[in-house]
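User: Metallo-beta-lactamase domain-containing protein. Structure?
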Amino acid sequence: MNSLTTLPDFQKFTEILPNIYRATFSQNYAKLSYPINVFLIHIPTTRDCILLDTLDPTNTNQLLIALSDHFFLYPDFNLKYIGLTNNNYDHTGSITKLLEDYKDVKVLIGESKNIKNNDYLLKNFGGKEDKYQIIKQGNEDEFEYYNILKPIFTLGNPSGKKFYFSEKRSLFYSTFY
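Assistant: Predicted structure:
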């Protein structure tokens, strides 16, 4: 048995701080299994939720089940945004299916100087501008929930990579290993 399966948040969202939920999944790579997390943030005033990252494609079904189970417990909440920390497959691999199942969701991506970084993502949105919001460095406060979750751009590869910071919780979100 994989030790990940014994974690309390294995393949289900567990509250780790008020209105902040984490789910851990297992990603297999080169005969190794390691944990990968996604976060779900509740905005109590509007009943909206923000999902941070979408895992690799092999975890799509497990993520959809975890979201379905979560929203069964919180029927007044709905998924409004998916924030992506970068465009690697282990962060974006389930995006296409999530957009099919959650039709009103908007994806948050960081502006990139290298257009190829966002090409992969934008093609998955079918060119529909209403499905994504590009957050530009210097204009992060245009994001609706900037007072709750601040996008922070970082240098490195890929360009446009960003962390999210919850000032109220003094907590950084990213899916770096």
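The longest strand covers residues 32-43. DSSP finds four helices and ten strands in the chain.
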